[in-house]
Amino acid sequence: MQANTQIEHYIEGLGAMDFQVEAIDTHAARITLENLEFVLVVAEDEPAFFQLMLPGVWQADAGTDRAQLLDVANDVMNAIKAAKVVIHGEAVHVSVEQFVAGPEQGIALVPGLLELLRSAVAEFHERMGMGPAPRVH
Q: Which residues, including other chains, have CB under 8 Å from residue 71's CB and lie 6 or more apart?
């Protein structure tokens, strides 16, 4: 797999800032910070836009009150305007999307955006709890 030029710029720049970062797809890199795995997505043909995600921050189960889950997701997005909380199936993800002048500006924003996503997750967990324990197979 060959990472696109845009994601390579981010990997180089974030690596120079001592972030643990690696390509995981042509358009994506994994940033590992304090045992959390964030995903950075940058398309080759849209260098002015990137998405930073923290997938799987909470897991719903059969006993989850879906109305409460949606209310909490909306409350978190209202409290932390830049963060998006996405419920896909049983999993909850948080993300932020950003338009930038280029990779240099994006790289400079990433540390603050990582903290923003961590704040969104903390807010979500404060309202919903940590969620059910994962099943061991």
A: none
